[in-house]
Amino acid sequence: MAWSGATSACRKTARMTNTTKSPSHEPHRKRSLGLCLLLAALFVSPVAGADVMQTFDAQFKVKRGAVALGTTRFSLARDGGNDCYVFRGEANPNAVVRVFVGQVIDESRFCIEDGTVRPQRFSHHMEGNAEDSYSLEFDWSQHEVTYRSEAGDSKVMPLGDSAFDPLSIQFAARRWVAGAANPNAAGERDFALIDEKKQKTYRLRASDGGRIKTPSGRYDTLKIERVDDPKRGLRFWLAREADWIPVQVEHEKPKTGVFRMQLTALDR
Hints:
Layout: E1 10-11, H1 26-42, E2 56-64, E3 67-78, E4 84-93, E5 104-113, E6 116-126, E7 134-139, E8 144-149, E9 154-158, H2 169-178, E10 188-195, E11 198-214, E12 217-226, E13 233-239, E14 246-253, E15 257-267
Antiparallel strand pairs: 2-3, 2-15, 3-4, 4-5, 5-6, 6-7, 7-8, 8-9, 10-11, 11-12, 12-13, 13-14, 14-15
C-alpha cells in the first residue's frame, strides 16, 4: 500500500533516497525513490462521502530525515464516461538526487464495479531503468494478472476476489474509512496488494492522529498505520476537516531511516 499508496507514494510505489555519491549505493537509491511514490499514492485522495472519487491534483515534498529529496505529484481524472478513472503519480528528484536516479511515473487505470475497486492496468516507469519498469494487466474474467517488465520478463499470477495495484489500493482503503460511522474506532482491515511479481497483504489500523503542522497548514487528523510487519513502519495522517486527504506520510525501515512526505498544495 497509499501506498504506496502508494505504495512499494516513497513507491519502490516515490524512489527518492539519500544523496551519497557512491555508485555502489545506486540500486538502494532507486528502490527508495519508488517506495516514496507508493507511500503517497496509498492515501492521497479525498475520502468523505461523494468526494472519494472527486478529481484532484496534489503535491508533496519528500525528505529523508532532514535531507530534501524532491517532490511528488498525484492527479486523478475520469477515464471515459463510465465509472472509471486514471490515477497518475510523478516523483521528481531534486538536482542532487537526479545524478543517481531519474523521474519515476506510475499510472493506474481502474473502475468501480458493484461498489468494488477493480484495477484494469498499472504501469511503473523508472527513467533509465528497464529492469525495474513494469506493467500489470488484470483479467478479472480469468482471475489472472500478468506482469511484464520493460526488460522482457513476464509472469502470470492468480487473482482472488479482491486485489489492488500499488495505486488503486488507496481508493479501496479510502472507501473503508469513509464508510466507518466512527473512523477512530474503524479497527483493522486487510488489503491485498500486487506489486511487481509479488502478492502481499497489508493490515491497516485507524486511530486518532492529533493535530499536526504541515507546509499547507495545521490539521486535526486520523492516523492510519500498517501493523502486520513490525520491521516496516508505515504511517499516514488524514485531515478530518479537509475531506480526509493525507497531509503527512511516513515510512521507516531499519537500515534506511524515515522517509517523510508532506502535502504542500491541493487543487480540486
